[in-house]
């Protein structure tokens, strides 16, 4: 949700674009270690006992954002958000898979990926709308979030408690079955690249619209960032409803096209090209992530599903946190547009390489039409 507000925070607290990327990336810095512990913990004590405190932490983070009086508050709030999402991600995905009425793991994975991307897309649009046109521009968004988190807390208390023997919990690295490691590595690479592009849009596009396109409307910057994830969710919904297989190579090729459009938008200063980049790249990310998550769920043994999903999400969020820091530092040296073009070129080459490898792998089973 804070994505379109970073420019306002920058003006309010007086920090550089590098700080924007660091505030964005600290989220992944706390999320990844949390994932290392939370997946096995959820397998041991049950998903509800992990998710409930995670939602409570998200509420504390929202309160910190609402009361922010300096950059330290932003770092603290993002760090708590990372812990919250890290604890909840694998546990909620595993819970969806295990409670899917017909036992269709692929359809449950599709729902999980659509929830992640759809929620991530609606947040920036809503925050941009409220910040541009409503009172309390740096607070109202988070007050609304606190209300939504209260509803979420009420919903997750209905999750079933575990029955039967459960594995004992101890801190350990997530373990991937030996026979599945090659396919898991490929799924992780697909997700890493997809979410690296998400991070670029969420962290840098608000500055891109202001610095490159000379448009300072917060709703526009929030919409440009949010559209990426909204169209990712739409692509996942269409595939799920039609029972179409999500092929990672198709998603990665669309990501390359989206990055090319993003570079073209900066070169021509045309806002429609920026929005087209969000639509095309978002659809590609949605397809790629859906395919990667479905493959991971197929590979995961039932008794350690949350642990395997933790490893998957750990790779995913490294993609969120690491590349965008490089973009921020490069932008400080050579300017925002050359930094975005460099990122787009390098990521495009990586996408094409992984897409070539993905074509040799079997497709995951298609979700049965809902």
UniProtKB/TrEMBL annotation:
Chief subcellular location: membrane
Keywords in alphabetical order: Cell membrane, Membrane, Transmembrane, Transmembrane helix, Transport
Example of a GO MF term: transmembrane transporter activity
Subcellular location: Cell membrane
Membrane-crossing segments per the record: 15-38, 50-68, 74-97, 109-134, 140-163, 184-206, 218-238, 250-267, 273-294, 306-330, 336-358
GO cellular component, one term: plasma membrane
Membrane topology reported for the UniProt record: Multi-pass membrane protein
Residue ranges annotated for the Major facilitator superfamily (MFS) profile domain, each copy included: 1-359
Alphabetical list of Gene3D superfamilies matching this protein: MFS general substrate transporter like domains
Protein name (record): MFS transporter
């Amino acid at each position: 949700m804070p994505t379109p507000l970073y420019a306002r925070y920058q003006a309010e607290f007086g920090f550089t674009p590098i700080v924007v990327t660091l505030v964005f990336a600290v989220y992944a810095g706390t999320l990844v270690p949390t994932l290392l512990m939370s997946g096995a913990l959820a397998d041991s004590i049950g998903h509800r006992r992990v998710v409930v405190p995670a939602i409570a932490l998200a509420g504390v983070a929202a309160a910190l954002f609402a009361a922010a009086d300096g950059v330290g508050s932003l770092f603290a709030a993002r760090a708590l958000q990372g812990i919250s999402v890290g604890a909840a991600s694998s546990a909620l995905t595993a819970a969806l898979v295990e409670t899917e009425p017909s036992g269709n793991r692929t359809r449950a994975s599709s729902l999980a990926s659509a929830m992640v991307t759809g929620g991530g897309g609606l947040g920036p649009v809503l925050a941009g709308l409220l910040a541009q046109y409503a009172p309390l521009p740096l607070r109202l968004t988070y007050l609304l979030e606190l209300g939504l988190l209260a509803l979420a807390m009420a919903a997750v208390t209905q999750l079933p408690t575990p029955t039967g023997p459960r594995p004992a919990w101890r801190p350990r690295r997530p373990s991937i079955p030996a026979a599945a490691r090659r396919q898991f590595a490929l799924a992780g690479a697909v997700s890493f690249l997809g979410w690296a592009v998400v991070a670029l849009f969420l962290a840098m596009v608000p500055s891109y619209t202001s610095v490159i396109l000379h448009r300072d409307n917060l709703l526009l910057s929030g919409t440009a960032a949010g559209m990426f994830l909204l169209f990712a969710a739409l692509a996942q919904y269409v595939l799920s409803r039609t029972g179409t297989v999500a092929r990672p190579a198709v998603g990665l090729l669309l990501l390359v096209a989206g990055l090319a459009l993003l570079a073209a938008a900066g070169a021509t200063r045309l806002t429609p090209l920026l929005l087209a980049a969000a639509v095309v790249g978002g659809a590609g990310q949605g397809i790629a992530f859906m395919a990667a998550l479905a493959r991971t769920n197929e590979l995961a043994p039932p008794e350690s599903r949350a642990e395997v999903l933790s490893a998957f999400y750990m790779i995913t969020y490294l993609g969120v946190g690491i590349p965008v820091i490089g973009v921020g530092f490069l932008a400080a040296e050579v300017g925002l547009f050359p930094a975005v073009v460099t990122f787009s070129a390098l990521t495009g080459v990586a996408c094409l390489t992984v897409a070539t490898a993905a074509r040799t792998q079997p497709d995951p089973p298609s979700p049965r039409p809902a």
